[in-house]
Amino acid sequence: MMARSYRWPQPLKDQPQRFWFGGDYNPDQWPEEVWDEDIRLMQQAKVNVVSLGIFSWSNIQPSEFRWNFGWLDRIIDKLGRAGIAVDLANATASPPLWLTNKHPEILWRDERGDIVWPGARQHWRPTSPIMRHYALELSRAMAEHYKDNPYVVAWHVSNEYGCHNLYDYSDDAQEAFRAWCKRKYGTIEHVNDAWGTNFWSQRMTDFDQIILPRFIGEGNFTNPGKLLDFKRFSSDALKDFYIAERDALAQITPDIPLTTNFMVSAFGVDIDYDDWSSEVDFLSNDHYFTPGDAMLDEMAYSASLCDGFARKHPWWLMENSTAAVNWRPINYRKQPGQLERDAMVHVAMGADAVCYFQWRQSKAGAEKYHSAMVSHAGEHSQNFKDVCKLGSDLQTLADAGVLGTTLQRARVAVLFDRQSQFASEHTATPTQQVRHAYEPVQWFRALLDLGVTADMVPPTLEWEEYEAVVVPSMMMIDQAMADRLRAYAEAGGKVLVTYASGIVDEHDHVWLGGYPGAIRDLVGVRIEEFAPMGNDFDGTPESLQLSNGAVAHDWADVITSVEPDTQVLATYVDKPWTGMDGVPALTVHEFGQGKAAYIGCRLGREGLVRSLPAVCEALGFELPELADTGSDGQLAIATDGGTQRSSNVADNRLLITKRVAKDGKSFTFVFNRVFEPVSVATDGHVVISNNCEIQGSNLELAPNGFAVIAQ
Ligand code: GAL
After folding, report:
1. Per-residue pLDDT averaged across 17-39, rounded?
2. Residue 414 CB-half CA count within 13 A
3. If you average pLDDT over residues 415-420, what whole number do you get?
4. Whose CA is nearest to atom 3 of ligand 1?
5. What is the C-alpha to C-alpha distance for residues 302 and 306, in angstroms, rounded to an integer?
6. Rounded CA separation 308/135 (Å)
7. pLDDT at position 629
8. Which of 236, 389, 447, 689 has its CA 20 to 30 A from that of 526?
9. Ligand 1 atom closest to Cα of 321?
10. Pocket around ligand 1: residues whose beta carbon is below 6 Å from it?
11. DSSP letters along 143-168, please?
C-alpha cells in the first residue's frame, strides 16, 4: 500500500471540533460499577476521547477460538452515549499466554540468544510470521466488529512499537535481516563493500553467511557497517509489522484514520520516526518529562521535533503524565502548575490533542505508582482539579480558534538525524562521550538562552527555507546531503556545523583527505585528528580553554589548516607542548552568497551561549536584542511584534512560540523558563493562563506559569 496522507480524527456526530482531550482507559482493570463513575468524572473534566483496549488482547480473545467483545461493546456504548469518542486499539501490543504457550517461537531473543519470556509486555518478535498471523487475525476481527460503530474515531495501532522489543536476535530476525540485505544490496559483494568485510577476515560469499550482530564476547567490537544496517533493519522490521496491521484495519474500515504512538524525546528510542511519519494518517507521540533543569526546554525540543516529523500538520500528544511516572529509579513529582503548563508546551508546538497515560490510576500491576488523571486520591484532589481546569482551558482555546492553526516557522532549523545517531552509537569511536543526540538539544537550549526559539527538523524536511541551519554532530553526511548544504550556502544560507560532523558516508565509511571530508570545502577547515578529553587517566586533558573564554569538553578537532577566506574567531589557549595552543576553534567561511561557521569542539549550552553572538555576527545572522528588565523588573516586550520568532527584542527567560491561522490571526504562547517571576507587557488578549497574574496589559508569570495571547 501507498504511504498515507494526513487525516485528522473527526468529532462525534453533532459535536463541534475540539482539542481531543483524554487518556488511555483500561476499564478491564476495574469492576463495571466503576465505569459509570468514570464517565461522570470524564464529563466533569470535559474529556472527549479515550484510547481503549491497548493491552486487552487476553480479555478480547481469551483463547484461540473464543472471542469476548461483550465488555468492550458495553463500555464503548456507554462512552459514546456520553459524548466520549474512542481511539480504539487493535489490542495486539501484549500477546496472551495461550498464544505464547502454543507458540513460544514468537518470543524474542536477546543478543546472547536467551528467550525473553512473557511476564511483562511486548514479548513478541516483529519478524515472526506466526505472531503476524495472530495479530492480523485480531486486527481484522476488531475491524469487522467495530466497522460500523459510530463512536470509534481513530485506530490506535499496537502501542509504542519497539519500546521493549526493538532489537531481536532470533532466527526469524536473522532470516528477515538476510532478506532485507538482499533487497538493499542485491549481491553479497555489495554487502561486503558496504560493511568493509576485508577487515578482520569477515568476507562473506553468500547471503546465508550473514549473521545478526549477536553476542561476540565482552569488550569486542561488532562490524560497524553491519551494526548500522541492523539498526536500520530493526526499525524497518517493526515498520513492516505496523504496516501489515494498519493495512488489515484500513481494508475493512477505510474511513477511520490511523496512528501509532511514537516515543519522540531528546534521547528517545532507536526508531527512525522520520521514516515512519509518512505511514500514519496523523502523528501521535508519547512524551514523559525529564526531571530537573531541562524539563521545560526538553519538552519544547521534543514537541518541536514532532512538529517537524508531522510536517506542521496538527499532531496528537497521545501520552504524557499528570504527575510522577513509576519507571525511573526516583520518580519525581510535578510542581503545582506543571500539569497544565506541560500540556500547553505541546499545544504551543502544534499539538491539537492532549492525552495521558492513563485515565484512572491502577490499583494493582506494575504501574500502580504511575500518576493518572484520576489518582488514587480520587476526584477530591488537586490533581483532578488541575485536570478539570485543563479540560476547560482547552475548550476555551478551541473556541478562540487555535485548533488547526500552524506553528510559525522559526528563523533557525536545528537538524536531528537518526542515521547519525545510529552511526555514533558504535562502541569504537574517538570517544564514547559523544553521540549525535547529545548536541541538538544543547543547541536548542542555548538558542533559547539567546532569545531564539528554533525549529527541530529532520534532514529530509525542506530546511533550505530557514535563514540558518545548525548541523550538530551530524557524523553521517552522504553525497546528497553534502550537495544540499553546499547549494543552500551558495544561495545565501547560513550554516553552523559542529565537531563530529561529515566524517562518514551512508555506509559509515570515512570521507578521506582530512575531516570533515563530506563538506571540507564548505566549512573551509581541514582536520587531521581529534582531541578527545576525559578524566579516566591522571594528567589527561579534561577540558580546553578557548580564547573567547568558553571551555570545551569531551571533543576538540585538531584543525591544521584553514582556507585563506576562513575567518578564525577563537582559538584554543593551552600549554605550548600540547599542540593545541593557537589551533582554530571557531571559524566562519564564505561560500557563494552564504557562509558556513565551524564549531570545532563540544561547548555545551554555556559555551555556545558565550560563543554564538560572535559566530552569528560573522555569519550575518542577527540575534535578537535581549530585553532589558529595568530596575522594577518590568520588561519592555510586546508579544505582538515582539516575540522571539519575529522581532529583534527577546527575553531569554521566556519560551515563546506562535501559532498562526490562515486568516492571519495568531496566538502567542508564553512560558516562564526560570524559577523567578517574569513580567511581560502585552497588547493582545489573554485567552488562558495559569500561575499568571494579569494587571492591565501586564502579565506577571510566576515559575511554571504560562499564558496564551490572541492577536
Ligand atoms: C508508555 C506506555 C504506557 C505506559 C506509560 C507509562 O511507554 O505506552 O502503556 O506504560 O509508558 O509511563
Report:
1. 98
2. 26
3. 98
4. 357
5. 6
6. 31
7. 57
8. 447
9. 12
10. 159-160, 163, 286, 288, 319, 325, 357, 367, 370
11. HHHHTT-TTEEEEE-SSSTTTTTSS-
